[in-house]
Amino acid sequence: MNKEWPIWEIFIRSKNGLEHRHCGSLHAADEEMAIQNARDVYTRRQEGVSIWVVESKHITASNPEKNGEMFEPAADKVYRHPTFYELPDEIKHM
Amino acid sequence: MENKTLSLEDQFQNRIDSGENIEAKDWMPEKYRKTHIRQISQHAHSEVVGMLPEGNWISRAPSLRRKVALLAKVQDEAGHGLYLYSAAETLGISREELNEQLNSGRAKYSSIFNYPTVSWADMGAVGWLVDGAAIINQVMLTKTSYGPYARAMVRICKEESFHQRQGYEIMLSLCNGTEAQKAMSQDALNRWWWPSMMMFGPRDEESPNTEQSMKWKIKKKTNDELRQQFVDQTVPQVEILGLTVPDKDLKWNDETGHYDFGTIDWDEFWDVVKGNGLMNEKRLKDRNEAWDEGKWVRDGASAYADKQAEKRAKKTA
Ligand SMILES: [Fe+2]
Ligand SMILES: [Fe+2]
Strand locations in B20-168, DSSP E? Predict the structure, then answer.
C-alpha cells in the first residue's frame, strides 16, 4: 500500500471583491494536485475565481474547551458597540 | 457557573437542545462520535457505489444531451462521496480505513444500489425516485447537529435537484413516446417504486436507533414521516407521466390529508441488506477492481510529489 496522501483545506474566492472562504477538504499528493482536485470538486458550477490550498497540519486551531476564557471577556463590553451611546434623535449622520 | 455541576453529557445535550451545532474539536460522547462515523461513512459509501448502476449506462445514453447530463450527475456523486468522507475524517477515522471498510464488504451502503439497472428507463426512474428519496432525507440532514455533516449536506442538496429533474425529464420523454417506450417506463416504475420506499429504512417501531438519533438531532424526522412525504409528493408526479404506481392499496385519505399505501415487503428489504440482492456481489467486485486498477495512478502521483519535494529541498539547501 502506498502512503496516504495528506489532507488539504480548500478556500475559494467566489468572485473578486469577496474573501476566500473555507469550503472543505480533500486528499492530494501535493499542492498542485490539491488545486486541481479542488477545481474539479468545488468549482464545477463556476463557484470560484481563485483557490487557496493549505495542508491541514499547518492550521493551528483554538481549543473549544477554552472558549470561556477566550471569548467571554468580549461579552460584557457593550461600550464597544455604537448603540451603547445615547444621543438625541435630532443628531443626524452619526 | 451552574454549568460546573452538570456532567459533560448533560452539557452536551443542553447545547444540542438549544440548537447549537457540534464541531469537530468539541467534546462529544463516544457514542455520538461512533454513530456519526458509521452514518456518515455509510452515506459516503452509498454515493460512491451509487455511481456504478448509472455509470453502466453512460456509454449507451441515447443522445449527447442525455450523455452529458448523466456523466455530470455521476461526477457529482463522486464529489458527494468526497464531501462525506471528509466529514467522517473530522471524527478521527482515516480515508484509508474508510476505503478498506467499503472494499472488504464490511461496511454497509444503501441497498437500493444492489438492484440492477436493466433499461434506459431505469436512468429516468433512478434519477427521479432514488435521488428524489435521497433528497428528502438529505434536506432534513442539512439541519443535523454535527456541523461538518450539515455543511456537506447543504452543498450536496444544491447539486441534487438537477439529478432528479434530469431523471424525470427522461421519464417524461419516454412517456410521451411510443407505446413500447411508455411500457418501458412503467416497467421501470414497477421495479423501482418499492425499493425506493424502502430507502427510508425500517418502520419506526422497528427502528431502535430513532429515539437516540432524534434526541441528538441527527435526524429531525422519523423514517415513516419521511416515507410519507415521499409518497405524497411523488404520486402526483406519477399521474403527470400517465403511469400507475404498483400498489393497489394506494389511495388518497381525506381525513389524514395523506396517501395511504400498501405493506412493504420487509423480508426483501432485510434480504438485500444481508447481501443477497441481485447486485451485491457485482458492486463490490467492480468497486475493488476500480480501486486496484487505479493503483498505478496513485503510485505515480505519490512518486511525482516526492520528486518535486526532493527538488525543492535541494534548491533551498
Ligand atoms: Fe448524491
Ligand atoms: Fe444524486
Answer: none
Task: State the nearest Cα–Cα gap between B49 and chain A, in angstroms.
Answer: 18
For B238, the grid coordinates are: 406519477
Beta-carbon contacts below 8 Å between A and B: 53
Grid coordinates of B152: 456537506
Domains of chain A, earliest start first? 7-62 (3.10.20.520)
CB within 8 Å: B302 and A2: yes
Specify which residues A25 forms β-bridges with.
A9
pLDDT for B2 beyond 70: no
- Residue matched to cell numbers 448523466: B70
Distance CA B200, CA B135 (A): 11
Contacts of A34 in chain B (CB under 8 A): none
Are B124 and B185 within 8 A, CB to CB?
yes
Which cell numbers hold the place of B47? 454515493
Mutation target to probe the A interface, by most A beta carbons within 10 A, among B75, B76, B82 is B82
Closest CA of chain B from A63, distance in Å? 7
pLDDT value for B104: 96
- In this structure, are residues B120 and B308 in contact, taking their beta carbons and an 8 Å threshold? no
Query: What is residue A24's three-state secondary structure?
Result: strand
Cell of B8: 459533560
Tell me which residue has cell 464597544: A80
CB B125 within 8 A of CB B171: yes
Chain A residue with CA closest to B149: the answer is A24
Residues of B with CB below 8 A from A65's CB?
27
At B260, is the secondary structure helix, strand, or coil? strand
- Nearest CA to CA, how far is A4 from chain B (Å)? 7
pLDDT (tens digit per residue) in B252-310: 999 999 999 999 999 999 999 999 999 999 999 999 999 999 999 999 999 999 999 99
| Sign of the C-alpha dihedral computed for residues B8, B13, B16 and B20 taken in this order | negative
Ligand 2 center to residue B80 CA distance, Å? 8
A38: cell is: 479542488
Cα(B14)–Cα(B12) distance, integer angstroms: 5
Q: Global pTM?
A: 0.92
Residue B164 CA to ligand 1 center (angstroms) comes to 10
From the CB of residue B160, how many other CB atoms can be counted at a distance below 10 Å?
A: 22
